Each structure stands twice: as structure tokens, then as C-alpha cells.
Amino acid sequence: MSATQKHVYLFSELDQAEAYVQGNWDSTRGLLGGKGANLADMTRLGVPVPPGLTVTTESCNAFLEAGEEFPQGMWEQVLEGLKVVEGKMGRKFGDLHDPLLVSCRSGAKFSMPGMMDTVLNIGINDAVAEQMIRQTSERFVYDLYRRLIQMFGSVVMDVPDEVFEAVIEAQRKVSGVKTDAEMTAEDWKVVTKQFKQIYNTYTHEDFPEDPYLQLKLGTEAVFKSWNSRRAQAYRNAAGISHDLGTAVNIQAMVYGNISEDSGTGVAMSRNASNGKNELEGDFLMNAQGEDVVAGIRMTEPISELKTRLPEVYNQFREIARKLEMHYRNMQDMEFTIERGTLWVLQTRDGKRTAQAEVKIAVEMVEEGMITRTEAVRRVKPEQVDFFLHPQLDAGAMKEAKKIASGLNVSPGAAVGMVAFDADTAERWAKHEGKQVIMARPETKPDDVHGMLAAEGILTSKGGRTSHAALVARQFGKPAVVGVSELELDLIARKMVVSDSIIIEEGDWISLDGTLGEVYLGQLPTVVPDIKNPGLIKLLSWADEIRKLGVWANADYPRDAQRAREYGAEGIGLCRTEHMFFEAERMPIVQRMIMARHTLERKEALDQLLPLQRGDFEGLFRVMDGHPVIIRLIDPPLHEFLPSFEELVQGLADLKVRTQHFHTLSEIDSALAEIRVKQDYLEQVEALREQNPMLGTRGVRLGILIPELTQMQVRAIFEAACICSKDGVDVQPEVMIPLTSHVNELKIQQSSLEEVACEVMKEQDLEVKYKFGTMIELPRAALTADEIAEVAQFFSFGTNDLTQTTFGISRDDAESGFLMEYIQRGILKENPFASIDPNGVGKLIDIGVQGGRSSRPDLEVGICGEHGGDPKSISLCHRLGLNYVSCSPYRVPIARMAAAHAVLEENP
Amino acid sequence: MSATQKHVYLFSELDQAEAYVQGNWDSTRGLLGGKGANLADMTRLGVPVPPGLTVTTESCNAFLEAGEEFPQGMWEQVLEGLKVVEGKMGRKFGDLHDPLLVSCRSGAKFSMPGMMDTVLNIGINDAVAEQMIRQTSERFVYDLYRRLIQMFGSVVMDVPDEVFEAVIEAQRKVSGVKTDAEMTAEDWKVVTKQFKQIYNTYTHEDFPEDPYLQLKLGTEAVFKSWNSRRAQAYRNAAGISHDLGTAVNIQAMVYGNISEDSGTGVAMSRNASNGKNELEGDFLMNAQGEDVVAGIRMTEPISELKTRLPEVYNQFREIARKLEMHYRNMQDMEFTIERGTLWVLQTRDGKRTAQAEVKIAVEMVEEGMITRTEAVRRVKPEQVDFFLHPQLDAGAMKEAKKIASGLNVSPGAAVGMVAFDADTAERWAKHEGKQVIMARPETKPDDVHGMLAAEGILTSKGGRTSHAALVARQFGKPAVVGVSELELDLIARKMVVSDSIIIEEGDWISLDGTLGEVYLGQLPTVVPDIKNPGLIKLLSWADEIRKLGVWANADYPRDAQRAREYGAEGIGLCRTEHMFFEAERMPIVQRMIMARHTLERKEALDQLLPLQRGDFEGLFRVMDGHPVIIRLIDPPLHEFLPSFEELVQGLADLKVRTQHFHTLSEIDSALAEIRVKQDYLEQVEALREQNPMLGTRGVRLGILIPELTQMQVRAIFEAACICSKDGVDVQPEVMIPLTSHVNELKIQQSSLEEVACEVMKEQDLEVKYKFGTMIELPRAALTADEIAEVAQFFSFGTNDLTQTTFGISRDDAESGFLMEYIQRGILKENPFASIDPNGVGKLIDIGVQGGRSSRPDLEVGICGEHGGDPKSISLCHRLGLNYVSCSPYRVPIARMAAAHAVLEENP
Fold first, then answer.
1. Do the Cβ atoms of B842 and A783 come within 8 Å?
2. Which end of chain A has fewer CB atoms surrounding its CB within 10 Å, N or C?
3. Which range, of A529-538, A675-684, B649-658, B864-873, averages the lowest pLDDT?
């Protein structure tokens, strides 16, 4: 490294830094660190940033390589730079006339905990303090002084921070005050003196009076902290390279608490709750930054600044606008006003609600600030979910008493009366018609019935993968977990929040699962409108980007109608058996199943035919011009019958009762009933299977009971013909479930063709249709090349495919070992929530490749629940599927996720 | 085709034919057809074959191409050749002094039904007949004559054969006789006359008196039959090319029924039952070939010929030896003696029993006739099975009354009393200790309990894939099905065989499932010795060839001992839970499962530890120097508990009984019992799963109840250390079942290592071991690359892998839809019997490739039941596995199959 090497860049020397790295913003951040680059960037924009300088990351690396020695010329450059800062501020570092104080902060390329953070107020010593007191006030200066010693001591010299805190605590008691704000000048003077003694005790040195020594030690400490154990561990975990080094930022201090025309505040360039294009924030006059956050004094809304200091307000508004234009995003800014002069200390992209995100993204496109693609990229698919769940009313939330915060593990709002156990929750909800929030220290599988009955779930323990969190997400229940301020007393039936607020069982509370917040009382909720104009625009832009089609799973015309409204381009799955489950149809279905001979079965099927035809007619009419995939019957037949256990129990009870009968006629009729039940039981038993999931279902039923699927096919084609005659553009696709071998499909195809031709001849009409299959067993995916010779389309049933690929019964596992696997990190994610890419995903890949090798124009989709999961949608896009099909409610999310999948390819 | 083209080859002109095709035996067969080439081959060897000639397949093609016209010069060549034949026989075709008759037969390259077969006795007309009568007898000649007209009429001129048969039938009635043998000369004369009239009626022509016209029409008919619809359909089905054409063989007739020193017979060059190197066969003096087969006259054993015609006998023995040497295989020959002169009419490789196959193959190696590889190639792996099943005593079979034959669908012998329904079969077998054969018209799933109780199964209907056949093979029960001679009268409880023999229920019969034969009475059985010296030699030769290792699945030392004796090179699967099922251990196991807390569980496990350690010690000692793979506990825990249904029923019964109690103490104790049972029931219910096959089992148990697998690991390593101290070379391999994710394996590995190190430290001994996993879930195979980073070996569990790949629960499906699938040909084979190559096989391939990509020296085997199935073994070889592991009884078959797998690669 040559002697002429530039180690130090003033905030005003960004152009030089850029020229040196000859690169982009990324390499500039590499040289100056994130914070330094940002401060320089604002400076170049003409934003009033307190002047300062950045010692480069290269200097840090040189320092560490040289055995912790500053590289040649570096310190001299710091001193030179400091001169420039002094000039700009009109104050001098260590000067006894008008002293300049500075801060010293680390700033690596990536934000990184574990490194030395911040030392403020460098430059005070006893003499400087005396002079400053003359210019300001004793309390102000000793407050600064004691802070310097505490920060310097703990951060630079490793003095335990608790010792300093104990001194303050003691002094508060001596003075009989509760908060630091009440401390007097004398108090801080005493504390400062004691801090110096502590410093000496722990470091065996006096606190350095020389301001330059303070600065030098601070700079060294920042450099050294790059190699601290905590920083190294963090870099290892986060995959950050160890050779980046950290920069050091030395910046002039400004004071918002120095006078009545001083102040400090934080503000967003737009409203973070609703996205309105207006400044939003709070400020305090004559105060320090941390006072705003601490909430000891009542802050004023930013609009008040207009009255107080109209020029400053206008200047700030202009700066906000400028920063927005520059960063092309809503900004979250910190500012300080020192004696009427505005300084901006920091700016960053502002956090916002989903509602605001959408509004801001759309308006910024309209303002020409960003492109449509950028707008789509900014709104996460999950944020679209916001528009589909009830939310706590934003206005009411501001007014209401927020009593605690926890982990936001399952989104949406829930309002209800607290119940402290699952049985109470269930009883209140089911039998007393109450709205209930179930609160527990943590939940177990035994609690699931209560969780299902409740509006929302609240726990004091547990994390993002706790049982409560997993179950809540699973069933779409809003939940806040791990609220440590909460103490539940299950004996006294009450909970205490932060040792102060007492909530009795039955009291109303409100949860915001999206933010993880708990409110006292019964807050109003709103259902955000899916017809939000901004959202509609944004989704239409997403549609322009995405390549995957988005279809919906719908069994009834009303579901299909909703799916269309939400933008579905087809029905990817109509589960015909759901129609069987309707109350008035069940007896016919049961008669069909229990039929002792074909004729009896035929009679039952004949009764079902017009009902199913009606169902399909409705679907075709709603989906006019769009494909409708109808899956033939799938579940094992015993699902339509009473359970075996129930029947055994019922029979046993009946036998016990019979013993109490005395009259002959009573006994006779009881015995007759027993015989009937016994008979029924035997039939049910014959249908029982040890592993029904792997049993007689899907296409296997179609092969064993051809008349059943033939009835369904007839219903489909009769409905198609009737609708077609009415001018409806029908596009039926008949889907066979649970195929494992191409021969199953061949048999079903010829059976179907026969019926289809028959119906079309009867109706004297030609209806175009497709014939295809679910791919939901590993063998189907593995032999997709053979299967695609018969099937014109594939639909991956990833629920079943996940079950067989993992060998996991979902029903059993999600209340059993699977949750333990996820909690223990054996599985990173629930494979039933997000497609397992290495196993199931690989099988889908094999299936798609195989299928297309035989039939290049094969239509391939997915209709499992994964079809509405953004991560899974992204995988489907990468694997080259044609569409995803999901629940109607998730169609908007899927449209967004499909666009993101495209954008992920060009980050 | 030039005029000098050679269309006809005498049987003695094989060299010329070979020179013409300039090729190998295959192209010679292509020119002369299979039959022609064989007759010529025997002729060249000097075997006395009646002289004749072959018209080539090329001539046939030319004939068909030219619009059914003989190619130029062909007929002239036939006539020339015929002259040579006349010269050799000293008779002349159509001559009135010493007439020659000939046969005319088709002969394509491959044996092929659907073509014209045979016309014998060509050359007779009224004048020739008169002359022949003078030389022989009237009956003899008219018998020949009527045969000619019938064969010529039906085969060449398409006159319906039934019409001729009706005439014979009528004549038998007229003469009051039952068989053709009783017909007189006059009878045949009348028949001949009527045949001529029929011929005229159907063809509108007289039967051709001109011998040359007879021959010409016969030759044309053979050529034309190549393009008959039936022949074309057969070729399409068998994949035989349509342009091969057929040859025509014209051969001098010889007569075994012409005099007292004439005769005919069939004989094998070695004993087909036991393989002894001696002629074996039967003959009849003064008889025609078909008389031997028809069984009307009592045949004499071939050894008798030695006495009758010693020179002929010796000549035949030499010929047999010569043909064996030439064809390097045991020969099955047909011969005729005409007036003391021996003629050989046909030879082919002889069919033989498994026992004979082995003996002959081994002896031919010792005689230097074939190589060891050829010997191994000849003995099918399934034939080795013979040595492992009881068989009917061969001597007794000869003496016994064979009453019927059917399909040999499941090998082995069964002897028992007939029962005509499943309940009777079960009652007799289980409760009365009888040996039972269950006989039914056909079987249904309801009959399975009877089939299981029976020694063997017999049905009158059904084919190789009938329910009876499938179930019998499944459970290793000998079975003969589709015995059409059998008529069952289930009401009268008897069966009638061939309208004559009556068998009452309870009568003894014997079945040979290997041959498909049914015998009257209780035949003795023999268990062929696996220590058969020939077999041992043959297996050792197979061992030299095979590349796959053959290991065995064994849970107990006695099984391991047998496996070693049968040649197993390791234990591929020890199912540790089988040890739990032993009666005295079950209570401890149940206590372990039901434990309410860890301490209670620990106590039960401490009791199990020494028992398991003892099991492993025994295994290690038997397998000294060989690997032993021990699989940690696999089945779901509820398998060790009483069934839920049983408990519900028991509790209900108890409640009913309680109602009859009167004293307080009775009621009290009953109530206490109810409480205990209720409690137990609840615990069992908590363990119930909807799909246990996909539930909490395998490694999932190991993760949820670590102390259980830790006990097992401790038992393994304590046993290993103890044996090792005794000088035993222990090679333990610990196997984790049901892995779906590498993280499961990582957890188990660290748990195992901890215990293993602990034990080895305690014992102050180092024991080398391997750590690996079953690959029995699709996901494990798909992510084999990740899994092999932890596992040192894979063992494919193809039973489970088939279940999840197909989505089939074996327990349910094999008594349900799967059998129907196989019967209907939807699946060609039961995938639980033979690995499905396209689905499961592909997954194994992915698993092997993936595993070896991470760990090139990965040890890969298979331990499902497929490990003993020859087809599956062949697949395992092709997929590059290191070994197969099967039941000890199948080890010899597997050794043979593994050798065949190598040989299949170089057919």
C-alpha cells in the first residue's frame, strides 16, 4: 500500500470514492460501508447531513493485517478530514472556545450485529465541558459527558455496562426520582464523577482527557471488533465473507436538546398504514432522538412542525420528496433541528402495511417514479393475503390500548373473549355462541379442538415453529405467540400483563396476527376489499409478467363464480365426490355402495345422475369459455358410511339396553334392530381397510365399479351438451385420480369414450374434451412417458404425492411426529404447506420431462393445496408447468406469486 | 431368379445348402426350414433317416411373388430328387410293382401353428392300393388310403374334418365296435369309398388318382398356407418376419405296422425323471406311432427291445449317443422299425424334471460334453426350488393312478383328504388335525382361510392367473387348477373325474403342483436333498459366474445357521422387533410402550437389554467373519398391543356381564376391571393411526423414543464386544428403517455413536461397524445423494418401496383389487412378487446412482422379499447392486439366479 493511498473520504467526496472503485454502487458500499456510502449519497444530493468522514474498509483490512497498526498516513488523513469538518461546522475538536464533538460508528458493507456500534460525544473532557456549560447548560453537558464515558467504557474498553447502569439507578434513588428525565444537572455531575472512577477501576487507567486519543481508541476499537467472536460467528451463519472489513464513520454531533428552537423527530415520506402520499411522523422540541422513541414525553405529529417552524417543515418536505425520488421508494427518516437548523441523520426505505405497500407501489408507477415490474416486485405475494382476511380497524388500533407484543405467526385479526383452556373455548364457541380467543402458556395436540373453535390463539411461550404457531397457520387462525409480558394464572383464571394489567377469563381482547399485537377490548375489524382499485391494477400488471396460468379448485358454481372474480382462468379441480356429501344425497350414495347386486346399484346411480348433471351444468355456465377439469370419484367408499367404531359402540349399547326390556314385543323389535345393525356392520367391515390412503380409491374404484364412473361421465357429457346448445363455450376435461399404471388409464379411456360417444349421439352434438390424469403417486411420475401416451393432460396432486413420497399419512402426522420434526428442525418446512423441492419436486420434474417426451403439448398443472403457496408456485414455474390451481381465495396471491417467480429469474 | 437356381436339396445335400447360404446354422435353417435342416443334419451324421428332399423357403417366396406359380425348374428338380429317393428306398412313386409313398410337410424357420401341417401316404390310388394289398394286407392299405383322403381333403382342399370323422363314427356303430383298432379291413374299405364321395361333394372334383398331382397340390397348399390368415396373425403376434417363407419336406414313408418285425417307439437318451444315463422310453411292435401315444395297447419299456431285436437296440443306443454328442443335450427321439430296419424320424432336446436337469447338466460337464457355464445356463433358478419342496415319490407316481391333469400353477407335492369348502377344510385341518386338499370349482377371497389351512389346492376352472393360482403361489401352497375333467357336485359332496372315477369328500388324493397332476390315494412324498452332490457342484459353478453377493434375512441364530449352510455370505436383514414378539417378552414390551414416564420405560428397557444382547450374540457367533445387518425397531408400536376392536368388544361384553352381578363385591370388582380396561383402551386409542403403514414407525420411533433404539444399539455393541473377546470376527452393520430425510439419519447417527463409544469404552475394545439405512420410501431414493453423505450402506426395502411407489397397501390389496388387476392383465405381474421394473426399478436406479455419486464405495443391497425372486435378482444385477438378501430357503435359488443374470448379458 503506497503512502499516497487514500484512506479517508469526506462525506462530500463520494465522486472520488466512486472513481477509485471504478464500479457500481455495490463496490462503493464495499469501500465505504453501507452507512458511510449512504451518508455520502445524501450529502451529494444536497441534503443537510452533519459533516463527517469515512475511513475505508481497506484501511481496516490493512490495520488487521499489520497486527493492529493503522496503515501509514491514515491517521494524518483522519486529522486532515476533521479539519474540513471543523471548518464546515465552525467549531473545533478539543477547542476550548467552541468545541466540536463527534460520533464514531462502525459501518460494514452489510448490516451486522456483533460489531462495535456507536460512541457519541467524543471530544468532551473536563475543560471542554466547562466551556460548553458556559455556552449551553450544566445539565445538558454532564448528560453528554456521562454518556460518553459509559459508551466509551463499555464499547471501547469492555467495562461491563451493568456497572454504569447500577450507578444511575442508585443516583435515581438518592434523588428520589423515577426517570432519567427528572435527573438534575447535579445528579449527572455526580454520575459523571462516579463513571470516571469506575472506568479507572476496570481499566487501571484514567478516562482519556485527550479528545484525539478518545477518537483514536474508538477507531481502533471499531476495526478490532470486525474480528470479534460474535461478528465472526454471525458472518459464518449469514454467509458473509470475512475479508470485507468495516469502515469507520466520524461525524459531527448536532443537538436537538440544546435550545427551545431545537428538536428531533422521525418521519415517513408517506403514510405507512394506508399509503397516503403525506408526511407522517412525530417530533419533540428541545429533545434528543431517544426521547421520541422512549415515549416519556408526548410527541407531536409532524404536521405540527408546520406551525412551529414553517421553513424547517417545508425544507424537510422537500428533502423527503428528493430522497423518495432518489431512492425510488418511501423513506423513513431521522432528523434533528439544532437552533433552527435542520439536519438529516439517516434515511432508509420505510416499513409499511400491506395496504400501504400496494397503494404506494401503484401511485409511484403513476407518478413515473418506478416501472410496473418494480411495483410488482415490491409487493410480496403474502401481502396480497391482507386483502382477503379481516383486519383490526387501523383507526381504532391507534386509539386502543395495546397491551403486549409477540410473534406474528398467523395473519389476520381476531376479537373475542379470553378462554384459558380448550374445553372452555370449545364450549363457549360451540354451545354458547360466543366469540373466543384461546389463551394458553403453550399448546399441545390435546388443545386442538379448542383452537379450532376459537377465533384466534394467544400464547405466552413458544416460537414461530411452536405447536400453536403451526396449528394456527394450518387452520388459518390468527395467532400471536411468545408474548413474554403475559403471565397466565390458570387456577385464578386470569392473566397479568407486564405486572400491571389484569385480564379475567371472559374479558374481551383483540389480536392482530399480522403485526403480532394484543389489544384490550373489543376492537372493530374491517374486511379489506379485494376490489381495491390499486390491487386490481397491480394484479393486472402481475398478469402481464407471469407465465404460469392461475386456475382454481372449485366444486360448486358459487366457488367457481368467486374464482372467476378473483381472476382464475379455469377450474383445475372439481371434486365430484364433494357433491355426494350433501345431506340429501348421502342416503342414495349409501344405497349405491351397499347394493347387493348390479341392478340395485344401477337404480341408485340413476337417481344420482340428474343431480350430478345439474352440478356440472352450473359449473360450465359460470366457466363459459374456460377449461373445467372434473375429477371422477376419488375417496374410498367407506368415507360415505358411518364409522366402524361408531357402529360397534352403537351395537354394544343396544345390546346392553335390550337387557332391560321386559315385554316380548320390546325384546323382539330390539332383536330385529340388532340383526339389521349387525348386517350393516358386516358390510361396513368388509369395506374397511388397514391403510385406506393406499387402498381401494381413485381409479381403482372406477375399474371395480365401472357403472359408477360411467354415471359420472354421462352426467358430464349430458351437461356439456345441454350448455353447448344454450351457446355456452364448454371445455370439459375429464380427470382420472390415483393412476399408478398406464393400463388403468387405457381401461378408463375406452369406458369413457363409449359413454361420451353414446351421449353425443343421443344429443346429436359434438363436444370437444380432454382426457387426463392426476399424477399423485410416485409411480405415475416415474412412468410419465408411458402415461402421457394416453393422457392429454397431467395434474400433479401434491398432497397425495407428498404422502407417498415421504411415506407420511398427513392425518396422523400433522397431529403427531411431523410437528415434532418441524419444531426440532429435522424438516425445515411442513412439506404439506410448501412442496419439498429435493424429493417431491424432483419427482414432479421427472414427471414433466417424461410426459413431455411422449407428448410435447401435454398440459401440466398442479391442483394440490400447494397451488396457493408462493414458494411452491415458484417451484412450479421453474419446473415448466402450465398452470397452478388453488382455492378461489388464494387466486390473487397465486397471480402475484407467479409473477414473482418470473422476476426471481432476473433478480 | 436364374434357370439354374437350386430349389430342391436332398436331405443328403446339407453341405451344398450350407455353401449356398455361406453362413451359419441359422441361415441354413432359414433356407431349409427348421424341420428340413434337422432331417438333413441327422442324415449327414449317418443316422438312418427315411430319405427325402426339401423345397427351399426361397422357392416358396418366389411362388407367392409370381402369383402362386412354381418358379421355373422347381417342379422338375422335385421330380429329379424323388428319383434319388426312389433309388435309395428301392421303391417307385406311383409304381404298380413296389410303390413308394411319401409325406409332405411344411417347415418354416420357426415352428409356427396356422400353416398346413402334414399329409401322409401321398402316392396311393386304387391301382397302387391293389398292388400294396398283395404285398401286405387289405386292412393296412385301406387304413393308409382313408387317412390320405381325409388329410388331403381337409388339409389341402379345406373339406371340413368333422364330416370325415362322422363317417368313421357311423361305421363304428354299424360294426358295433368302440375303437378304430377294432375296425376290420372291410370297415376301412367302406370308409375309403365314402371319403371319396365326400371329397367329390365338397370339391366338385374326384379325388386325384394321379400320385404326382397329389404331390403337386400338396406342395402348393403348403406354400399358400404361409399367407393364411391364421399364420399371418400368429407371425404378427410372435414378431416373426413375414418374408421368411416356408420350406416343403417330401419324405419317404416307412411303416412300423407292416409286419411282426416292425414297430415304433419314442425314447429319451437319458432318464427324464432322475437323469440317469440310460435309454428310457416305450415301444410297440407292429404298430404305428400314434398307437404308442394313444395308450390303447400296453407299451413295452425300451429295454425290452434288447431282447426282441438286439441289433436294432444296439444301433439305436449308438445313435442316441451320437445325437447327444452332436446336440450336446439329452435327446427325445421318435423311431420306426420297418421289417427289422431302424429309421429315426425326429430328434429334439428332451424335457426333464428339475432333478434330472441338474444331474444331466453336471454329468455332461464331467463327460466333457458341455462347459460349466453351459451347465449353469441350462438349470433355471426356479428348478433349484425343486430341491427345497417336498415332491411326490417318483416311483410311487409310476405305480399310482393318475386321474387328471391341469395347470401346474404352484410347485411341490400335496397329499390330503379332499374337502369341498373352505370352512370344512379349515375345521378338519385346524381342529381335527387332518391333512386336507381343498377342491373347489374356483376360489374367491372368501375361501382364503380354507386355502391357508389346506396342504394343497385343486380347482376345475381357472387359469394361471386365477384367484386360486395367485393365492397358492403367494402362500407357497402346491396347486393344480383348471382340471377340466373334474366335475364337482357340492350338494352330493363328491367329485367325478372323466365321467368315471368318483371321489367322495374325505377321500385321499395327491397333487403334483410341479407337473400339474392329480393322483388317487395317499402317495408318499420325499424331500429332495439340498445336499444333492450334483446341485452342490452346480451351485459352486454358479458362484464362480455371479457378481451379486447372496445374503439372507435371518432373525434368529437357527435361521442364520441354515442360511450359512445354503451358502449365504452375510445377514442382510435382522428384524430386531421379531425378537420382541416372543411370548415371554411381550409383557415387558407392552410395559415399555405403555410407560407413563421415562423412568418406567427405562425399567422395561433394562429388562429387554440382556435378552436382545443374547439374540445378537448368537447371530454374531454363527456369522463369524461375515457381515450382519441389524435393523433397529421398525413396526408401529400398536402392533405389540391388543387390537382396538378386541378391546372395545371385550369392554362391551364385560359391561353386559356386569349387569348380571348381584353382590356388591362382584359389582365392585367388575367396575374396577372396567376402569382398568377403559384406561388401557384409551392408551391404545391414542396410539391408533388412520394409515399405520405411513405412520409413526421406523426411524420416526427412534427419534420420538430415543431410549428404545439406544437400548438396541447398546445390546448390539455389548454383544459384539463379548463375541470379539471370544475371538469371533464380528462385522455389525446398524441399519435405520424408513428414512425419508437425511436429517433423520444424522440424528440417529450421533445418538448411535454416543452409545457405541460408551460401550466400547466400558468394554475397552474397538469394534468396527457400519452405519446405514433402508431405502424404502421414494424420497429416500430421490435424495440418495444427500443420504449417502451420512449412510455407509443402503438396503432397498422393496416391499415398502413398492407400497409407496404404487400407493398400494399390500395387506388390503392382495385380497382385493390387486388380484383383480392381475387377473384382468392390468398388471402383468404382482409387483410384490417381482419388482416392477419401470416404476420401482427406476427409483432403485435413481437411488443407486445418487448414492454412489456421493460415496463411490457405498454398499448397496436389497432385503425385501424380492431378494429371492429370479426376475428381481436379474434386475438388481443390471442396476449394479452389491448383493441381494432373501429368506434362507431361497439362498440357493438366488445364487443360481445371480449367475443367470450374468449369463443373460451374453445370450
1. yes
2. C
3. B649-658
In three-state form (DSSP H/G/I as H, E/B as E, the rest C), the secondary structure along A623-657 is: CCCCEEEEECCCCCHHHHCCCHHHHHHHHHHHHHH
- Measured CA to CA, the distance from residue B665 to residue B673 in angstroms comes to 12
Rounded distance between C-alpha atoms, residue B493 and residue A601, angstroms: 35
- Per-residue pLDDT of B814-872, as tens digits, reads 767 887 898 788 999 889 989 999 999 999 999 999 999 999 999 999 998 899 999 99
Q: What is the distance between the alpha carbons of residues A371 and A365, in angstroms, rounded to a whole number?
A: 6
Task: Give the DSSP letter string of B743-762.
Answer: HHHHHHHHHHHHHHHHHHHH
Chain A residues whose beta carbon lies within 8 Å of the beta carbon of residue B829: none
**Torsion angles phi and psi, residue B252, rounded to 5:** -60, 140
pLDDT one-digit tens code per residue, B121-154: 999 999 999 999 998 999 999 999 999 999 999 9
Distance CA A337, CA A300 (A): 15
Tens of pLDDT, residues A756-776: 999 999 999 999 999 999 999
Cβ distance of A645 and B649 shorter than 8 Å: no
| Angstrom distance (rounded) from CA A148 to CA A135 | 19
Question: Each residue of A610-644: b (16+ CB within 10 Å) or e?
Answer: eebbebbbbbbbbbeebbbbbbbbbbbbbebbeeb
Chain B: nearest CA to A686, how far in angstroms? 11
Contact of B648 with chain A, judged by CB distance below 8 Å, is answered with: yes
Measured between alpha carbons, how far is residue B341 from residues A665, B101, B331 in Å? 96, 17, 21
| Total residue count of chain A as it appears in this document | 907
Read off the pLDDT of residues A843-865 as tens digits, 9 standing for 90 and up: 999 999 999 999 999 999 999 88
Dump pLDDT digits (tens) for A300-311: 899 999 999 999
Query: How much is the pTM?
Result: 0.82
Q: Which residues of B858-881 are buried (b: 16+ CB within 10 A; e: fewer)?
A: bbbbbbbbbbbbbbbbbbbbebeb
What's the CA gap between B738 and A807, in Å, rounded?
A: 8
Contact with chain B for residue A805, Cβ under 8 A = yes
User: Going by C-beta distance under 8 Å and a sequence separation of 6 or more, which residues neighbour residue B92?
Assistant: B86, B98, B99, B100
Chain A hits for B786, CB-CB cut-off 8 Å, are 838
Q: Which grid coordinates belong to A781?
A: 411420475
Mutate which: B694, B704, B811, B835, vs A, most A CBs within 10 A: B694
Answer whether A812 sits within 8 Å of B689, measured CB to CB: yes
**Interchain pair B690, A692: CB under 8 A:** yes
* pLDDT at site A295: 57
- Cβ separation of A839 and B700 shorter than 8 Å? no
**Pick from A350-354, B422-426, B776-780: least confident:** A350-354
Cβ within 8 Å, pair A743-B783: no
Q: What share of chain A is helix, strand, coil (3-state, %, to 5)?
A: 50, 15, 30
Catalytic residues of A: 467, 863
Length of chain B: 907
Taking a C-beta distance cutoff of 8 angstroms, is the pair B122, B106 a contact?
no
Degrees to nearest 5, angle at CA B833 with B827 and B836: 50
Q: Which long-range contacts (CB under 8 A, 24 or more apart) does A497-505 make?
A: A497/A403, A497/A404, A498/A403, A498/A404, A501/A403, A503/A418, A504/A418, A505/A418, A505/A419, A505/A420, A505/A424
**What grid cell was written down for A345?**
441523520
What percent of chain A shows pLDDT beyond 90?
68
CA dist B763 to B605, B709, B758, Å? 20, 20, 9
Q: Residues B530, B536, B539, CA angle at the centre, nearest 5°?
A: 110
Positive/negative CA dihedral, A338, A343, A349, A352 = positive
**ipTM of the modeled complex:** 0.82
Taking one residue from A and the other from B, the number of pairs with CB-CB distance under 8 angstroms is 187
Tell whether B655 is within 8 A of chain A (Cβ): yes
